[in-house]
Write a structure and sequence with these properties.
InterPro entries: GrpII_AminoAcid_Decarb, PyrdxlP-dep_de-COase, PyrdxlP-dep_Trfase, PyrdxlP-dep_Trfase_major, PyrdxlP-dep_Trfase_small
Keywords: Lyase, Pyridoxal phosphate
Strand order of the largest sheet: 1-7-6-5-4-2-3
Number of helices: 16
Radius of gyration: 23 Å
Oligomer: single chain
Protein name: Pyridoxal phosphate-dependent decarboxylase family protein
Number of strands: 13
Cofactor: pyridoxal 5'-phosphate
Order of helices and strands: HHHEHEHEHEHEHEEHEEHEEHEEHHHHH
Family: Belongs to the group II decarboxylase family. Sphingosine-1-phosphate lyase subfamily.
Helix content: 40-55%
Bound molecules: pyridoxal-5'-phosphate
């Protein structure tokens, strides 16, 4: 195919995606709204995408950019002169590496455990799963959704290699009591990781703007590592995060070397081996271009948007914000049972917005997640007007009710023994045969909502297999 035709085809394919710019997609994407930023990042990416971070001595430009990025992150997030770090491919890799480093530093511990506040990102469950570690989840305070330091402390034992808290948590946007938890972990000689993947590049600027941001970063005694994603509130293209450690001795066990084969001695700082210089260079370009001043003004825009949305949503009859969010994330639930929040999500989709459904979990009922970015500034009134009309429409449809036979079929499924045929039968019962994702999701979400979390995981993995079918 001629090059132009390939690009046209790609452009056509992309029209079916959620919009990544303009503030209408309130999850997955982070839009600065700054003219020219994408272009700068794309040019930087193109200049370095063929360079390979596998060998930093062969590509010293990548080494230099990575060291500069880590220094900037450490300076922003309370790292002292001994702080060190690595640039990874994203938040999940940073979180997994923090778990790996903590476990690898304790070869004396058999059957290691990580203690997680129950609101910790699923990346930590993935780490536990991949590395054969036990994840101990500790319920958070049922009203504030913040970690409970006493309960976290009680969960630490001789097998604990890491304690994890968030700043903020993805689901509710609240900041865990980092100083209390970190102090208790330190008293027991256990590492403490702060997952600031989503908040790390915006909370320091909120503080500079006068917001009361509680202490959460590497300057807090006992915090041994911290993750912050550049592809979130640093508004860099997808594919970069930073994992910081308080000092080099804590990072050593993160690294991997193998001379146990006849080729080059493999020496990796992160999970990847060959590492494109593209995302790194793009991030370096964006960070240098925006600078402290740029981030401060983008944070001011995001702050003003999240404040306007928070008070506007509280004023919509039937909606309620969960907890006391302290960053850029909102969790919105229904205040009465006259409608279903997942129907509100569908109604918003019809109005050109994407709000992310979150299932009920512990004391948190089914709700909608909003990741608010600088690009939402100026569009708050439009979003609120559409949200009010979406709630009114959801009320007119009434709550979703599932056919009794479907609920019974779900209740009768054994996640451990689910077959492809049972899954196909379930899809048929729900009227979901055929390819493609359905436009309205409320019924599917209701169905997934009545399934136990373990069954939900199993059903969705089955669904993934159906989606990823080579064509
Ligand atoms: C708090 C937190 N940790 C980790 C992650 C995982 O990041 P990624 O999706 O970049 O792997 C996220 C993503 O939203 C997050 O919010």
């Amino acid at each position: 195919m001629p090059a132009e035709q390939v690009i046209d085809e790609l452009r056509a394919l992309r029209t079916g995606d959620l919009p990544t710019h303009g503030g209408r997609t309130l999850a997955y994407v982070y839009d600065s709204g700054r003219e020219g930023l994408d272009d700068l990042a794309a040019r930087a990416h193109a200049l370095a995408s063929s360079a390979n971070g596998l060998d930093p001595t062969a590509f010293p430009s990548l080494l230099r950019m990575e060291n500069e990025i880590v220094a900037a992150a450490a300076a922003l997030l309370g790292g002292g002169p001994s702080a060190v770090g690595s640039v990874t491919s994203g938040g999940t890799e940073s979180c997994m590496l923090a778990v790996h480093a903590a476990r690898a530093a304790r070869p004396d511990v058999e059957r290691p455990k990580v203690v997680l506040a129950s609101t910790a990102h699923a990346a930590f469950h993935k780490a536990a799963h991949y590395f054969g570690i036990e994840a101990v989840t500790v319920p958070v305070d049922p009203a504030s959704f913040r970690a409970d330091p006493a309960a976290m402390t009680a969960a630490i034992d001789d097998r604990t290699v890491l304690v994890v808290v968030s700043a903020p948590s993805y689901a509710h946007g609240v900041i865990d009591p980092v100083p209390e938890v970190a102090a208790q972990a330190a008293a027991r000689g256990v590492r403490c990781h702060v997952d600031a993947c989503i908040g790390g590049w915006v909370l320091p600027y909120f503080r500079a703007l006068g917001e009361p941001v509680p202490d959460f970063d590497l300057s807090v005694p006992g915090v041994t590592s911290l993750s912050v994603d550049l592809h979130k509130y640093a508004y860099c293209p997808k594919g970069t995060s930073v994992l910081l450690h308080a000092d080099a001795s804590l990072r050593r066990s993160q690294f991997f070397a193998s001379a146990a084969w006849p080729g080059y001695t493999m020496l990796n700082s992160t999970m990847q081996s060959t590492r494109s210089g593209g995302p790194l260079a793009a991030a370096w370009a964006v960070l240098n271009h925006l600078g402290d001043e740029g981030y401060r003004s983008l944070a001011a825009q995001a702050l003003s948007a999240v404040q306007a949305l928070r008070s506007g949503i509280a004023g919509i009859d039937g909606l309620r914000i969960q907890g006391e969010p302290q960053s850029t994330l909102l969790s919105v639930t229904a205040d009465d049972d006259g409608f279903d929040v997942f129907t509100v999500a569908d109604e918003m989709t019809e109005r050109g917005w994407y709000l992310q459904p979150q299932f009920g979990f512990e004391s948190s009922p089914a709700n909608l997640h909003l990741t608010v970015t600088a690009a939402n500034h100026g569009g708050e009134a439009g979003l609120l007007a559409d949200l009010a009309s979406a709630v009114a429409a959801a009320r007119r449809s009434g709550p979703v009710t599932l056919p009794a036979e479907l609920t019974a079929a779900i209740a009768g499924l054994d996640p451990a023994a689910l077959t492809a045929e049972q899954f196909a039968g379930l899809l048929a019962m729900a009227g979901l045969e055929g390819s493609g994702t359905p436009k309205r999701m409320a019924e599917i979400n209701a169905m997934l909502g009545v399934a136990s979390p373990v069954l939900r995981e199993r059903l969705l993995v089955e669904f993934l297999g159906v989606l990823y079918t080579a064509s």
